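lol ok so funny story. i was supposed to be doing the assay writeup but got distracted and ended up predicting the structure for this chain instead. priorities right. anyway since i did it might as well share w the group, maybe its usefull for someone
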Amino acid sequence: MSGHSKWSQIKRSKGVADAKKGQIFTKLTREIMVAVRSGGADPEANFRLRLAIQKAKDSSMPYDNIDRAIKKAMGGGEGSALQEVTYEGYGAGGTGILVNTLTDNRMRTLQEIRTVFTRGGGSLAEAGSVSWQFRSKGLITAEPGSMDPEELGLYAIDSGAEDVKIEKGYVEIITDGKDLELVRKALEPKGVKIISAEVSLVPQATVKLDEKSAVSAMKLLDKLEEMDDVQKVSSNAEFSDEVLEALKAVA
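and the output, tada:
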């Protein structure tokens, strides 16, 4: 997870996310609508909706957009046609990839994802052949600001986090899914900047890649993330700092 998280930080720093803000808002809207459909429109009683709303706020999505998405989901329509489907596959170097989608046409999405995998040097896999390598966890990415990263990590552990990874410029905090909000709320008064906080599929072990395989794997992950029906992509690929710096130069 950390390799892909590092790449996400690089893209944010280069403004890639801002350039695609319209597409990001569309995906956030879909997540809110499906959350409402599955658990109701009251965020206090719907954990998934609370997370979706917070993620939208973290991405600077206007409150009016959030409110419209909730009301639209309550009225049926587009949200009721969306189905959640997860596809599994392999990329360069044998890396495992999970692709979470929201789609109103499973066959179309399957064909499009298969095409992206094939063109990216990967392949789709049987259900269950990749997913067993991942566990659902809370994942918080935070910039420590004026707080010492080591101190932030220790405070996160004391607040209920299971593990902490200190990276250059940010800290990655892993929690049990049910403790995600608890740990986030404990961190916010400390003045740290929460970049993202969500329930994610975290690999139990990572696959280290050489530069050639890393470049191929990263290109495939990016292409999958850019697809309209794709909500989230998880991978067990591990990218070295040297490879990421090389990719950063051409991103």
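The longest helix spans residues 21-39. The chain has three domains: 2-81, 86-132+206-240, 133-203.
back to the writeup now i swear
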